[in-house]
Amino acid sequence: MKNISSLTLRGVVLLALFVIGLFGQVLAQKSRPVDLLSRLKLIEAIELSDLEKLWKYGFSKDNEAWMLIKNKNSGEFEYSIGNYTTFFSPCKESDVGDWKDSILVTIRTRLVIFCSDNSIEVWEIEKTTLLAKFEVSKNEDTELMVNMRLSPDGKRIVHHISGNNAAFLRNAETGQIIAELFPSNRLLLIPVFSPDSKKVAIAHKLFVPDLLDWYTPNSTLVSIFNAETGSLISQLRDPKVRFKNEVVSHSKWVSAILFSNDSKTIFTGSDRKTKSWDVATGKLLHTFGKHKGSVEALGVSPDNKILATGTINKDNRVRLWNIKTGELLLKTKKNGADIWRVKFSPDGKKFLSMTENRIFILAIWNFQTLIWDTTSGKLLEKMKKFVDMSPNWKFVLIFNRKKNTLNLYEYQGNK
Q1: Which of 181, 331, 404, 413 could cross-link 39 (Cys pair, CB 3.0–4.6 Å)?
Q2: Helices and strands in the chain: count of H runs, count of E runs
Q3: What is the number of alpha carbons within 13 Å of residue 233 lying toward its C-beta?
Q4: CB atoms within 10 A of CB 178
Q5: pLDDT band at 211, cuts 50/70/90?
Q6: Rounded to two decimals, what is the model's pTM?
Q7: Under a CB-based contact definition with an 8 Å cutoff, are residues 77 and 123 in contact?
């Protein structure tokens, strides 16, 4: 009788352990992120020939997919957006600059192109018309790295030469200089326009020359200008941070700048800190601390209530903050790669982060796109590729380099 009871008890225990293990596997399966590719429905695959090079692609503010393709033989460019396609030949005397921001698109048919002869061209593509062409440097021997931005409404351009302390605000349609934006003896960083196109922010690295005439950045000051006139609106000065006798924005370099959606608040990310400021007055509102790496990515929820900060240098997390109070809401798990971009969905319920991790010895880059739940910080979907998501989060563009094909997908993760 005892043996039977013992066997029965042992069977019950084993059955219980089996059920618990099975339940654990189900829970683990539920908590595991979904492959993002399984949420993508292919709409169109655009195959390029061996003579075609995909120069740039993306989405317009109106969620139309666009792409710019160069014919390697003729040098002619094909520009397509939605159902519209045209051909044109920019930079006839030279070539188009070959880096990420050498071509800018904001409105449907206006392109700003940097040419290798150190000039900038502004095109109205619908009419195949060159609106303006102007030099940024007379040094024709060296192709410069020019940082340039086109305002969201396509009416203004700000540009400056990397390593130079002069920035110019221009009329995009005529190329005419509106204002020269720079304090003397300061090295400029990439400018940023506000969503309403009325303001432009520029970060200045302050430095002191050393004995070898190298310039070591010590701190950063951010200035905000009127994008229509070039007049100074405000400068962001934290009373607790000084460079020599001057009150400045950050004690380190500023690596990320972002305006709020209503253009009234501006956020600056630096080494281990992010700050929010009032645009009109330059007043410091909050300091979002507790980062363990340099802040390289910033995002704001559609309702302007949540700030997302993404970090690099082994911290590799996204943190969400209450913009009004400065309170830390949550932080994601480490993902093992540097975070370079953060973007919220239109309803604010999700956000995506794009990460990059380089294996230096092998010169291999690992890219990932991760989609998270805003409330819980749970990882929902992931994919080992960079994706370009449309503003309404309904479409995705992915370029397959091996097949030389640009794929347009419908994103079904919102259903």
Answers
A1: 413
A2: 1, 36
A3: 27
A4: 19
A5: very low
A6: 0.85
A7: no
